[in-house]
Write a structure and sequence with these properties.
Radius of gyration: 17 Å
Number of strands: 0
Number of helices: 2
Length: about 80
């Protein structure tokens, strides 16, 4: 296996390994932002839920982008 092919394979594994972390951190970050805004604006739990949802959507969107990049890298192997 040539060095460039090995490098691409390792990059592919690293890219796909980021997905579980991304899916966990994005909603938690959104929830944290919503929590801080709820405390600052005294809005109950409304913004927590809104930003939790937005964090989940952002995480899924980024996951799709990473999968597409990994697919391109896999096709180049």
């Amino acid at each position: 296996m040539p060095d460039s092919s090995r490098f691409r394979a390792m990059r592919l594994v690293a890219t796909l390994g980021m997905i579980p972390i991304l899916l966990a951190v994005s909603p938690l970050t959104g929830y944290g932002i919503g929590y801080l805004l709820d405390r600052w604006l005294h809005t109950g739990q409304v913004l927590r839920l809104v930003f939790l949802f937005l964090g989940f959507v952002a995480g899924v969107r980024e996951m799709i982008r990473l999968i597409r990049r990994a697919q391109r890298d896999f096709d180049e192997l």
